[in-house]
Structures are given as C-alpha cells and as structure tokens.
Here is the input.
Amino acid sequence: MALEAQASAILRFGVFEVDVRAGEVHKQGARIKLQERPFHVLTVLLQRPGEVVTREELRSQNWPADTFVDFDNSLNTAINKLREALGDSADNPRFIETLPRRGYRFIAPVTGVDRAAGGTAAGVSAVTPIRGRKIAVTAAVVVLASGIAGGLLWRTRQARHLTEKDTIVLGDFANSTGDAVFDGTLREGLSVELEQSPFLSLVSEEGIRQTLRMMERPPNTRLTPEITREVCQRTSSAAALDGSIALIGTRYNLILKAVNCANGDLLASTEAQASDKSHVLDALGNAASEMRRKLGESLSTLQKYNTPLERATTPSLEALQAFSLGVKNNFPAAIPFFQKAIQLDPNFAIAYDLLGGAYGSIGERALAVENTRKAFELRGRVSEMEKLNIEADYYFGVTGNLIEAQRSYVLGKQIYPREPGFCGGLGVIYMSLGQYESALKEHREVLRLLPPDSVAFRFVAYTYLLLDRVEDAAATAREAREKGLDSALGPTAYLIAFYQDDASEMARQVAAAAGKTGEEDLLLALEADTAAYFGHLGRARELSRQASNSAKRAGKKESSAAYEAMAGLREDLFGNTAKGLDQTRMAMTPSSGRDIYYGFGLASAYAKNAKATQRFVEGFEKGFAEDTDVQFNYLPTLRAKLALMHSNPLQALDDLELAAPYELGLPAGGFYNWPNMYPVYVRGEAYLVAHRGSEAAAEFQKILGHRGIVLNEPISALAHLQLGRAYVLQGDTAKARAAYQDFLALWKHADPDIPILKEAKAEYAKLQ
Here is the structure.
C-alpha cells in the first residue's frame, strides 16, 4: 500500500497532461479549469484510447444508479464542457470522436507516465484503469527491475498496429556509406513503395514543407529523426519512419524504424541486406514490404498492391536520384531533373508522367502530350496507384476524355481512399462537367485529407463561388487567411470581391500580386476582364497586354496566348471585329492548345468569317474526337455560330442540343475560365434570330442567374442588353426598358466609341 500511495497516474496527449489522482489538467504546464463531472468522463475515455466507450458505460462509471438526473443532457453537457476546455470540435475532432447512438472514442495518442518510476513513458497502450492501479504499479516495478538486469525489456513488446486513420511522416535516410547516390534516393524509393499501400498514408511533401515553415525552418530542412518526430507531432500523425544505410564490408545494410512520435517508442523495425549496390533497391523494397506488414497492413493488400520497387520506379539508382531531385522542385525547375532521369532510364514511366505535367505548366503542350503519352505506353511497369494516375493524366490531358479520366479517379479513390489526388482529380472533372455540388464534396474531402494546403482551400472557395454561395466562399478564404494558407487564394479572393462589388479588395489583391512572377499575370487578366465588363475597353486592352507580357516572363506561354485570345474575342463581341480578329491571330502559335484555338474560332465566328470558322470546326472534328469539352461544348457552339452566319437559327438550336447537359461547366483548364456558358449565350442569340423572344429571354436570364460562373466575363454584361432585345420581341416594353437601363448603368462610364454601346443607346432611344 505504501508503494501505491507514492505513485501518481499521469496521462499525456497532445499538449495536455492529466493528473488522475490530483484531478487536474495542465496545458503546456498551465492548469486549466475543468469541472468534476467532465474530468471523470475524460479519465474514462483516456483509459481506453482508440476504443468505443458506450454512453451506458459512461453512465455506470460516472452517474451512480441511485442518481436521479436527466442523464442524456447531463452527459452531453459534460462532453461539451470537456471539448471546450480542450479546444476540440465535434465536427472536426482531434481528441474526442462522437459515434452517433453508440458513444465516444478518444482518438489521439495517449501515453502514461509513472512518476514513481522516474517518469518513464509507459507507451501508447499502457493507460491503466484506475481500479487496477495497484497491479499496474507492481508491474511497473517488475519491468523496471527487469530492465536494469536485462536491458529494458519493455521496449521489445509487440508493435502497436496503425489504423486506417493514422498517418506517417517519412524522414530522410542516414547515409554512412560515403556514396552520395543514396542521398534522397532511398527516401524517394521508400515513398513510392509505401504509397502502393491502400492502408498506410504518408503526410504529403507540401504538408511537411508547411509544417517546417510553422517551425520557422527552411522548407528543404533535412528530416533528421528529431525533426521528423516533431513534424509528426505537429501534424497529429501516429508514426515517424526513418531509415539508414551502411556499408559493412562489401554488403549494404538497410534498417527501417517506425517510432511513436508522441513518446519515441519503437513501433516496428525491419532490416535487409544487399550483396552489392545494384541490389540495394531490391533490398529496400523487401524491407518496406515487411514494414507494411508489421504496421498492420493485411496480407491480401500486400500481395495485391506490391509491385517490386525496381519495376515501380527504375533499377537505376542514378535515375532515381535525379527523379527525387525533380520531385523536390516546383515546375518548371524540375524539368531538367526529370529529363536526366529519363536519359538514364528510358523506361522510367513516372518520370515521363511528371515531365509531361511540368511541360504543361509552362504551356509547352506538344512536349506535355509527348511525355504523357509515353508514360501511358509504359504504365504496365508501375504500381497500381501510379498506373491510375498516369491513365487519368493521359485521358484528361492528352485525349480530353473526361469520362475515362473519371473512371480512373473513381477506381483510385476506391482503392486509395486517403489519397487526395484522386478526390482532387474528380473535383476538377465535375467542375468541367458543371456538377458543382459533386465537385464541392470532392474538394472538401481533399481539404480534410490535406489540412495545411493553400490550393485545397482555393478549390473549395472557388467551387462555393460557382454555386453562388458567396458567403461560404468568403468564409473559406478567411479561414485560409487566418491559418496562413492563403498564398494561392489571390485570384479567387479577387473574384469573390467582384461578386460582392468590393472594389477596394479587388485593388488590394491586384496590388499584392504586383511584381510576383507567376502570380501577377492572372490578376492582371482578371482586372482586364473587369474593366471590359464595365465598358472600359481601352483600359482592358492595356491590362491584357500587361498580363500577356507577365505570363511570358514567367514562361507561361499558354496563359499568355489565352489572355491575348480573350482580348481579341472581347473586341469582336463589342463590335470591333477587324481589330479582334487580328489580335486573336497574333495569339496563335503552332503549339497553342485547344482553348486558344477555340478562342480564335469564336473570334472568327463573331467577326462573321464563315470560312475561318468552318476550318476550325473541321480541325476540332479531326483532332479532338475523344475530347469531352470539345465535343460537347466547343464544337456545338462553333457549329451553331456557323449556322447563324448562314441564317439558319433552327440548325443552330439543333447543334446546341449536345451542349445542354454540360453548358454550365468550366471547359478551359486552369483558373482563367473565360469561355464559360457560351453555349447558353449563343442559344439565346439563335432564339433572337428566330424571333422567339420568350425562349431567348430564358437563356439570357440563365446567364444572369449564374453570376458565380460568368462573373466578369463580357457576356455577363452583354446578357443585360440581349435580355432587353428579347423583351422587345415579346412586346414587353417595360421589361425591355429595365434591361436596357441595367446595361447602360453598368456602362455609364464606358468608352463612348464602342460599337455595341452605340447600338444599345439607339435601341433604347426607340423605346422612349
């Protein structure tokens, strides 16, 4: 009993420490207030971390049978007070998870400390019920004595298996061989091997870099075991995984160790040997497979998703090293590293795929297609995850077949539910198809899987905007800003401000991006569109020119051409047809992608150049037979414009039937979505030509009713004018005047020499 009296049960999780005997909770050493009942509930949950504790069990241990209270309300109150004290949330729990109609589960790692034994950590699974404390103390003394006599036997207990909710932080390899070829190479190989697992989940490289920034360390900081463990703790991960390689005689010895990042306990370790350098990757693959098993992965998935490392990547250490350097760099700086990897191993499928993506990022479409197609041809050599990624990249970026790409992403999500790339890919496809609720669901899932990610916040905020949920979009942007994760949000924040008529915030976003290579071009292009939206065409021309030049300086050829193409189309829409056609021709290059060609095709159509428009229709028909956006958005629109040039509105309406299911989608790649809802606009024009005013009005109202999609596009402003023309056909003079007044109010300070403005004023005068 004396021994029992001396012991104190100390339980730790996150930054909290609970003294069970004293009834106290401390946060980073400072005591926090917690009432008796919530404290008792906490101790019960801490005794069974990771297990479901039913409401009835909590009642029996905290509310005696002869206590007459409203138990449900009392327990709910206790849980709410407990969460409030811990800063926890029922919607996004870090500590206490609610299982509806069942009970609660403590989901954070918990460690027990016996101060009578010098504060030695007792391990994640060593939390002992209060009623068994005497047995626990006796056991602790026995273990301590055995450790002194025989070498800390408590550390050899069976490894705690991870769960499907746990994440792992992968550290750098300790290389004592003196051979620099292993630097970075083995970590990359291990990453590829572990990412084959549907069970394990690695913290992303972006997540690691973001955490290092929070630690006030450079993003390229070497991930030593100590730093890896701290990153692991800050990301609420379960394990830190480190490796080492040593040359012993003529043999290479590899060791992998997974430790509990909360207390440093060893969870699992594996070891493998290679007779020479050429067999090191094979040995690494074997060690990684064994580590997957020891951490709890099932034999069935190990057997099904375990492509040998040399086949999944490359048998060349030098090629893998070059590839690893490419992965550590952003596009386009990664290009020479991927090129070198392919030179060293011409069958390196993943390197081709990422090289294709890198070329695509700078507008080198021909090279992007060439490398992505090569990766697709070699996809039989890679792991299942990489195969699905390569197939999706090929269908999305080369053939444009969104339906096939969608199948790859759906299958990938089914096999690898914690891999955010598949959810993100699905989200982008749903945006292209105009299925924004589905897109929002996928992007929110990416944000859940990748909480410290600025781009994920950007997609969520932008999708809210597309749904006209501007308050939710603004709230998402604020949340990102508060967390320091708004670095990618400038363009979306600008568009949110445009929707809210907040000119000062729009100006602030443009100023914030000024001079930032790779960022300012899109803000300048958006500012140009806004100027044109209000009829300031001269200013729009200058801003588009600046945007194009900025994109060229950043190496973004496709973006530069898109800005110029939009500037030309804008001129045509406003009636300056000769100027618009010339400008769009200047934007064309032999390597221009389909979106630029579509811009030129539209410009030709609005310039009433039937021959040029026909050539583009034929080019799309021959060169983009599988492209979903081309076949169901671009081509129907161009065919309809061609039919209108031949005074055949009924044919135009028939051509546009194909576009109806996809007309609200985002056909252009990237965040500069200038061609949105043109099928709707052209259908409205066709109804006007056919003198069907009510149907025409419905189409233009559709544009005005989806402000979050069209935003500051020129057709968003012109829809007011076209709506007025539709009401004139209906003979509704009052509504026609109102629509014309809306347009003229938008353009009250417009450049006076714009042809369509002159037409609008003349038409409005006839209504007086």
Remarks:
- The first strand starts at residue 9 and ends at 13.
- Residues 133-150 form the longest helix (18 residues).
